[in-house]
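check these tokens.
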Amino acid sequence: MDKGKAFEFKETDMKRNTRFDEILSKLPVDFKNEINEADKFLKSLRSLRFKRTIDKHGGKISYVASDYGFSYAFRVIHSEYSQEFNWYIVYNGKPETWHRRADYMEETLDEISKNKTKLSEYIFNSLIKCNNCHGERCLARTIYAFNGQKKLTCHGRVTLGIKNSDFECAREFIQHLSVLVERKIINGDPPPEKIILINTKRSL
């Protein structure tokens, strides 16, 4: 793909794009407008090169930056409206091969905290805590440290509501992530390494 392109649709045909519009047409106006704004915003981020996908049941719209293992998604099932982002796990193959990219959560939070401490704290506090549903051997358990605190999370997932302020928080986080990635690219840093989950520390 031409690296000058900011955004590449996985949904390349008219039928898929129409499906996106049809799903949005059934949503509350404010939620629909925010998703449209997010769609435009994510297209503009050259460094992350998001691809948009829709699950087969039409209940989740996802934007995936596969070079960095990052996903931003909207749950669009009635009564379950929400948005979330995380560094996702690749489950192909046997459990000992499951992996994710070395993520930039902590670096991004540190960058944000230089000017917007409340936002960085809000994002950190919105990380979903691990509730030990699969025990200590669960490969989705992810530890993050920020501002002297450590947190054991489920998938490293941040879940937010659908208020205007929630969308603003998500966009600001992703904007800071994009700037961080751009800086790494300019500096010639290697892409994030693949982390084999079975080798990670998963307890505080």
About this structure: The two ends are 41 Å apart (CA to CA).
